[in-house]
Amino acid sequence: MLCVLLCAVLVVSGLAVVPGWDGPDLHNGSMLDALIGAALVEYTTGSLDFAVYVTIIVGGVSAVFTILLVVRLGFARWILAGIGALVSLYYVYGLIRLVDLGAAAEHFTWIGIAQLVWLAATVTALLPGTSRAMRGYRHPQPLPYH
């Protein structure tokens, strides 16, 4: 659920952007760098709206599957792990892209935070304890008398 909240915060920061944004400002680090898809803007639409929409979609889909996970539908765990892995790989690409652009250290802060949150959520979804929790609590069987 923390990933969904992070997506919401990033979208709100993206909606506050001045129209005419034309790429990362290499002198001022901001939360806009951590929008999912911000590193791909110049290859797609050329507008930050693309990154805002992708972040909204990823956050919404993650929220739906988190709710399905809470009601103990096992397939939701694997879908969330897949989404988390894809987003984590995207943030690795985003960090590499910023290094390639010669960005200042301030740009790495929000991408690093987002990377850690998504990676932690992915690892949590893959833990064996999560699988046992999906099956529910089972009372221990009493030992047979000899």
Topology of helices and strands:
Layout: H1 2-15, H2 49-70, H3 74-101, H4 106-126, H5 128-135
Main features:
146 residues, mainly alpha, 0% strand, elongated
Overview in brief:
This protein has 146 residues and is mostly helical.
Detailed description of the structure:
This protein has 146 residues and is an all-alpha fold. The protein contains 5 helices and no strands. The chain has helices at residues 2-15, 49-70, 74-101, 106-126, 128-135. It is elongated, with a radius of gyration of 19 Å. The mean pLDDT is 77.
Strand portion: under 5%
Distance between the termini: 49 Å
Number of helices: 5
How would you name the oligomeric state of the polypeptide chains in this document?
single chain
